[in-house]
């Protein structure tokens, strides 16, 4: 019951550890000429240092990693929709994946829910 309406019971629980942890979304097809908007629900209940980082990994048509884009970091308590803009860094990029990063020893307790990729142009 810490996620986003209407399915608040299905959120992913994020907690800190002694090492940095990463959560990867499935790869989605992207067009290099298209702008995307990502909407993500994040409910941070505790954090003492570090951040929950949002990063986009980019892949070629065969699924090989090409590059990535750091988007933002959340460093405070609260429930918010984290909105990110994304455009592929080159025409070689055919797939992308959202990566959530929980920094080591951050004292984090958070819930992550409802990732939506939206075409904007």
Question: How would you describe this structure to a colleague?
Answer:
Helix content is 0%, strand content 57%. It is mainly beta and 121 residues long. Strand 5 and strand 6 (65-74) form a beta hairpin. The mean pLDDT is 93. The strands form 2 sheets. Strands 2, 3, 5, 6 and 8 form a 5-stranded antiparallel sheet that branches.
Quickly list its features:
single chain, 121 residues, mainly beta, 4-stranded antiparallel β-sheet, 9 strands, 57% strand
Provide a count of the helices: 0
**Mean of residue pLDDT?**
93
User: What is the SS-derived class?
Assistant: mainly beta
The count of strands amounts to 9
Q: Detail the poorly predicted runs.
A: none
**Which of globular, elongated, flat, extended, rod-shaped describes the shape?**
globular
Task: Give a quick precis of the structure.
The chain has 121 residues and is an all-beta fold. 0% of the residues lie in helices and 57% in strands.
Write the SSE topology.
Blueprint lengths: L11 E4 L5 E4 L3 E2 L5 E12 L5 E8 L5 E10 L3 E10 L7 E8 L6 E11 L2
Antiparallel strand pairs: 1-9, 2-8, 3-8, 4-7, 4-9, 5-6, 5-8
């Amino acid at each position: 019951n810490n996620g986003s309406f209407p399915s608040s019971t299905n959120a992913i629980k994020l907690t800190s550890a002694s090492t940095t942890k990463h959560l990867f979304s499935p790869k989605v097809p992207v067009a290099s000429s298209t702008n995307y908007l990502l909407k993500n629900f994040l409910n941070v209940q505790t954090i003492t240092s570090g951040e929950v980082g949002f990063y986009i990994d980019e892949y070629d048509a065969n699924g090989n990693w090409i590059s990535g884009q750091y988007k933002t970091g959340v460093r405070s308590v609260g429930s918010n929709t984290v909105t990110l803009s994304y455009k592929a860094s080159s025409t070689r990029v055919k797939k992308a994946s959202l990566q959530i990063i929980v920094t080591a020893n951050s004292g984090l307790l958070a819930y992550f829910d409802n990732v939506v990729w939206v075409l904007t142009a």
